[in-house]
Amino acid sequence: MSDLDDNIQIVSLSAKDSAGLKFISDCYVRGLEEENQSSPLSSWRQLTADASQKIFCYFQQVLSSEHLKQVVYVAKMGDQFIGYIYVFVRKCEGEIPNEIGVINGLYISELFRNRGVAQFLLNKALTWFKSYGIAYTELTVNIGNDAAKSFWKKNGFNVCEYLLSKRI
Ligand SMILES: CC(C)(COP(=O)(O)OP(=O)(O)OC[C@H]1O[C@@H](n2cnc3c(N)ncnc32)[C@H](O)[C@@H]1OP(=O)(O)O)[C@@H](O)C(=O)NCCC(=O)NCCS
């Protein structure tokens, strides 16, 4: 894989960075909207009008916590945010291993896709997991999200469970 563009930097997002929080909240919503286009879930899963604001508050809260093991890495070109990854450590009581690395959000702005930005963000996140001794990671991906499925497959992620859903 080629090197990341020299102008692109990967940094860890602070809870005080309002512009960064706004970026990742908007991306989170856009990611859900994009996935909904190719998902059976879209028949019942909808976003509220204030989704971005709610997600902003969520990220502000979790990133302020000193007790949770989590990090948001953002990719920036100058002052412009162009992508992010959000990962955290999930406790699995009574299991071995008793901690799993969860990849909960990954989004690259459309203009910057296919330049290796997601790859660099993922590499940073995997290094972060390893710094906590985490050896296993997991994530969910929408069944119709072919670009993401290809990305994860390329990175050695395999399907090991199906998430079943039904409107009742
Ligand atoms: C999936 C996503 C994160 C990839 O980001 P990216 O920065 O473009 O990816 P990278 O350049 O680092 O990696 C490229 C690889 O991703 C996959 N990929 C990216 N875009 C693709 C597309 N349109 N079609 C198929 N595969 C694609 C391929 O495996 C590609 O490798 P290749 O060039 O050898 O085929 C990006 O498309 C995105 O943000 N999508 C919307 C949000 C989303 O779906 N997030 C993932 C949720 S699980």
Which features characterize this protein?
binds coenzyme A; Aminopeptidase; 168 residues
User: What is the number of helices?
Assistant: 4
What distance separates the N and C termini?
A: 46 Å
Shape: globular
Output the radius of gyration.
Answer: 16 Å
Order of helices and strands: EHHEEEHEH
Taking pLDDT < 50 over at least 5 consecutive residues as the criterion, the unreliable ranges are none
What does the oligomeric state look like here? single chain
> How would you characterize the largest beta sheet?
5 strands, mixed
How many domains make up the 3D coordinates?
1
The percent range for helix content is 25-40%
Numbering strands along the chain, what is their spatial order in the largest sheet? 1-2-3-4-5
**CATH C-level category:** Alpha Beta
Named CATH architecture: 3-Layer(aba) Sandwich
What fraction strand? 15-25%
CATH superfamily: Gcn5-related N-acetyltransferase (GNAT)
What name is given to the CATH topology?
A: Aminopeptidase
How does this model look, in words?
The chain has 168 residues and is of the alpha+beta class. It has a single domain (8-154), classed as Gcn5-related N-acetyltransferase (GNAT) (Aminopeptidase). It is built from 4 helices and 5 strands, in the order βααβββαβα. Strands 1-2-3-4-5 form a 5-stranded mixed beta sheet. β2 (70-77) and β3 form a beta hairpin. The longest helix has 20 residues, at 18-37. The mean pLDDT is 93. The chain binds coenzyme A. Coenzyme A binds at residues 31, 34, 106-108, 113-119, 139, 141, 145-148, 150-151, 154. Coenzyme A is lined by residues 31, 34, 106-108, 113-119, 139, 141, 145-148, 150-151, 154.
